[in-house]
Fold these 4 entries.
Entry 1:
Amino acid sequence: MSNSKWTKIEEILSGKKTGETVNLRGWIYRTRSSGNIVFTVVRDVTGTLQATVKKGNLSDKDFEDADKALIESSLEIQGVVKEDKRAPNGYELQVTGFNVVSFAEPFPITKDQSPEFLMDQRHLWIRSQKLTSILKIRSTVVGAIHKFFRQNGYYEFDAPVLQPNQCEGGSTLFEVKYYDNKTYLSQSWQLYAEAAIFALEKIYNMGPTFRAEKSKTSRHLSEFWMAEMEGAWMDLHDVTEIAKDEVRFILKEVLEHNRRELEVLGQDAKKLEHMSTAKYPTITYTEALDILKEKEKMNVEWGKDLRTLEENNLMSHFDTPVVVTNYPSEIMAFYKPKDPKDQKTALCFDMIAPEGYGEIVGGSQRSTDIEDMTKRLKDMGEKIDNYEWYFDLRKYGSVPHSGYGLGVERVVAWICGIDNIKDAIPFPRTLLRFRP
């Protein structure tokens, strides 16, 4: 069969191959023997199919191989496609040729394993239908992000992963030995992106991001992927509308390409369809506190950041993502400017997803006030010399500019409807896990 044309299982399940002899290759998903018949469910990247192996249709050796091959053994098989309503997915392959490429040992993963055990066996568990479906959707999400920005005139711009500066808070930096010096893993591409917009004007990036947050929640990873954008001549309103358009575009792409995967995950496609076309509200932080007070009887002190509890209660009143702007300036990063109309607040925003998935996008207009940024950095204990290059951007032709970052894993988790962000990335890195 090595020179044969290989058929994907999805072609068979479409009904286009009924009655034809086809060649498949894949892995055993399930298998059971009944005397002279072996019922083997085969999987490939496109789906699963029952293959019925009868003793009289094969050589004795090939039938013995089919009978003893365990789950995850790799196969090349040939057979005739038949429609059978009793079979899973409505079709089966009546096998006429069966070649085991590699016999698998007894598979260590069985039903009802603990989450920690599955994490230890991640290199094998990644083959599961659940994770395979999530990773396909993740691929669509990443492709959609590139497509969205390129179609809208953005240039892809890569920033260094090794950086001498902190961007989001020194306490969450990963320190790296760099020859005889030390540097840090990137918290964001932002500072370098701000340099690039004076040349390219509209840019975006997709890259790994590192935050040494001592958090064990289902929302946090120590290594994750962030899709960021930065644009010259843009204010806060401009970037919040771009973020809304991007999220709607991502949803449309997933709905177009991943209906089967959403079904496997038990996700409601109609709910996603609504959010792919709906208008997303924009409210201020102060308005969010008012909603919590009036509708949830929660008295959140003005100036406190919104925790998971507050975000979840707030979002119980919305069926789409919501943009929250103008958080208190005192709790914001040094580069987020104060709103001239309300000096207590910053020109910044978060986009919060419904159903308890929290912040999926965060961004701001960028400060052009060197004096204010210098003061804030000194208050944080930062060495101002490390930021002189950044301040140069304000000295030579500064313009209003803004940007945001979208957390890829948070968006994937939300779209897939999964409980834990760790399943939104192939090999999660957390406070307690850095292997396999």
Entry 2:
Amino acid sequence: MRTVLYARVSTRDQTAAHQLTQAEGAGFKVDEVVTDDGVSGVTTRLAERPQGRRLFDMLRAGDTLLVRWVDRLGRDYQDVSDTIREFMRRGIVVRTVINGMVFDGSTKDPMQQAVRDALIGFMAALSQAQAEAMKEARRAGIAHAKAQPDAERKFRGRKPSYTREQFEIAQRRMMEGAGLSEVARETNLSRAALWRIKKDPEACSAALAAWNM
């Protein structure tokens, strides 16, 4: 039995090494890392990603599939929930680094099964809602940056103190209800920066767009 970390790297700021460090920091012993580089999680199903397909071939009953968050496992609600259920059907345990979620198909207790299945649906729906919210913030930010007069567009203001990845992680974690102190530790951002992101994500996204970040 082994633990395989699946890391989807879709932006220039993300790295598989960073996701591995997070997993090990959370106490996981990772035997192998499988990485999809440059693949959009919003448009591409897990089974259609080169290394995503490999997971279905390499994992065996008793293995653990570790992901940073359930959004790594699909492009939308249906894909995420179908993927988790398929791995469970094969006897593979799915775990998340964030919040330590465990999806195990071996339980036979009907109450535990009901709670697990409800949690799968909720987490998959939350993942899609977060993805939609972040896409909208990015679209609004880019549109705002493009709508500025040439003089204002040339004056980009102060360069953001956060990367696109930090912005999206912070936005996602705050949507999940995590406190500023917790998110600050996870993203290495100041509470002031996080407060700006929470208060006006569209303006923060616009600043990233203005600086081509």
Entry 3:
Amino acid sequence: MTKKNSVNLGYLGFNFQIKLVKQLIEDIKFSEEIMDIVSPQYFDNEYLRLVVASVKDYYEKYETIPTYETVFEIIRVDIKREIVRDSAIEIVKDVKNGDSKDCLHIQDTALKFCKQQELKKANQKIQKILELGDFDRYDECEEILKGALSVGGEKDTGIDVFHAIEDVLSDDFRAPIATGMIAIDNLMDGGLSKGELGVILAPFGVGKTTLVTKMANNAYNLGYNVVQIFFEDNPKVIQRKHITCWTEVPLSELTENREEIKKVIPKFKSKEGSLILKKMPSDGTTIPKIKQYLKKLTSNGNKPDIVFIDYMDCVVPSKQFKDEWSGEGNVMRQFETMITELDVVGWTAIQGNRSSIGASVVEADMIGGSIKKGQIGHFIISIAKTLEQKEAGTATLAILKSRFGKDGVIFEDILFDNGTLKIDTDISSDVSFLDFEKGEEKKKSNLVIEAMRKKKRVFGEQ
């Protein structure tokens, strides 16, 4: 069968069809786009047709895509003939164990095929009307054609408030990825989930890269596919930071302990997920370029779960703006749109302004540049280090904004060592901004009292 007169996907091969079914089950967004127009009859293998029919029936009944476990259960219950049931189960196993390489090509080709089939059906209906010579039905022909051209699109028309209520009420509806800082994760209800944007605010030289690397390392250790994008550091510098996270050997002592480190690295290399480090140029990188890179990873079978950009001030707008601040807000908005479209968790860091340098706590009004960079974030955490804290390897973390948990919380003098990449919030109890300010006022008052006492002692002795 040639491509020109194909009525099913057989001309693309069996492996293509296996990969397509994998995308139908695993990529919810794609499934919602194609589910109404994909037909079991488009598959030339009877067992694949059976599996696709089961997935479509489940989707039409429950308005959600079944998991592999559910598909297995449907086949076991609904198919009575043992030989058919066993063959269908084996097909599902092949689908589940298959790779996701070229998934974007698979999706694009399948969508085009299904849309063309809809156009063929519409053309046949219109042709019958034209053959009858019933010209008063022109409007009907036009509607048939419009309907065929509009199918297979993204369903973003809103949802009924009662849609998929079981998923809404489930404990894990967000499926968050933890940061690894227990106290912070507790306040975030477990971390950020896909489609959510986290922002780290800090002045230069405090530890933005340390925190980003620590969270990226933790996500990888949990088995996720992680992408860490950076602009200013050498890739070897970031690699060394991750090695320190795993081995707890300080950055300054890695070289002298390299033989011992090489022995334990395989243990961390065997994790289920992946950790990709990508250095990009800071003189022309836009969000569309980052998106293109992430799509390439996905197409090669390595779809990211979480993406870190260190840091957003290095990303330039994809179009010109009258002022720099408008461009900064647009870049952050593009980032938010990208993580939603790609269904990933997004974290980025931004610079604080001059007043944030040496501040005891970095507050929201200390964002450098456009305040819109913070307004867009779902969760904003700040890092502050006084000179004393830099010496002691500590810091003050503040939760400035949280759309799904408590904010206005400060963790004072937590362990935050850039040399060992150790960050521990458990050694500090959290306080509110108001209590922190009262504490700062009390410290200042005590300093004044102590200064007056010293002055009395000095003058009293004279």
Entry 4:
Amino acid sequence: MASVKLGIIGLGNVGSGTLKILAENGAQIADKLGFPLEVAAVCARGFEGKTITVATRQSTDWRNVVNDPNVHVVAELVGGTTVAREIVETALESGKSVVTANKELMALCGPELWEKAIQKGVNLAMEASVAGGIPIHTVLREGISGDRIVALYGILNGTSNYILTAIENSGAAFDDVLAEAQRLGYAETDPTADVDGFDARSKLAILSALAFGQKIEAKNIFTMGIRRITPIDFEYAHTLKHTIRLVCGARLTPEGLILSVRPALIPQSTILASVKGAYNAVWVRGKYGQDTFYYGRGAGPEPTGVAVVSDLMRVAREIRSGSPERVSPFAHEQLAAFRPVSVEVQRRAYYLRFRVKDQPGIIASLAKILADKHISLDAVLQLPGDNKESLPFVITVEPSTEKAIQDAVEAMNRLDFMVEPALALPMETSL
């Protein structure tokens, strides 16, 4: 049977991994499909130093790939939300199906692009946009689609997870671990998207749309990064039999969805606590199917390339069968309006870490503020320390609302013995 021809735009890590898999695994892919996938054209800003393992037409202008009459499916592997959006929209307008690994674009305007794909009778596939090595889209879209999801928690950024577990294991400072992660290629030169939680936020927006059928706007997700996590926080967390991870959380309440991306203390006994290094994981709770867990590489040329190629195969089957698959990439034919519930109403136990100039009356002053905000103190922890000018200690409190904690921390930060703002982290006990 005649091949389905592909156009690959973008030859960074993901694009290079995709080409390698298509070349090295082409025979088995053809056996599974009953026909081959053929790379008809590739596009990159430049080809110097690039290894092209398939015989194909090369161009530095993406329009030459999208407009190529021989190309049936376009793989957008550029990233970003400007040129990438133009590529995807132009390809769909041209009646060509699109496969993308672009989390930012799909979080920003994925539902609108899907509507355009429907109008043109083509497909839009995005499995590689979240947790590249884990087929979590397929799970939510088809595997457990008969269930009603009530909660979803994940570790969705491998860079942040690598940094946190390195701090935990080595006791090194954040800046030193970040520099090492950059040297090893785990972190970008500009790590903002990873360490400040924005990459994970886009991924949570996509997964929440699949899980709960709402059109999520990433800007409405409460987001906090990991820059302030120190070795002392892990020491105290271990004392409490917890660890610290950047947790992406989505929980359905009668009032609506509560979404957050933030570092949190999680019990060492939970399965998410065992996720270390650059790995990703997603834990899903359904009303009927209860708990399921998915784990694997979240990034990297080959794990993400597998997700891209798998999407290319699915779309190619649709083209060859002549019957468009109407399963939306967002698992719902129409996404409902987002009903966000502020994280401020969520009740959790909290970990409050302070650095203070040692003097009498510190605990009494902090306890008074907690009492004024109707927050019950649970425990006070202080590991031995010699620096009386920057003495760390921790207070844990009983379950309280985020709003009460924020108000209390704001008042505490005005006290004259505070060396730096207090760090408040929720203690997630429902995982």
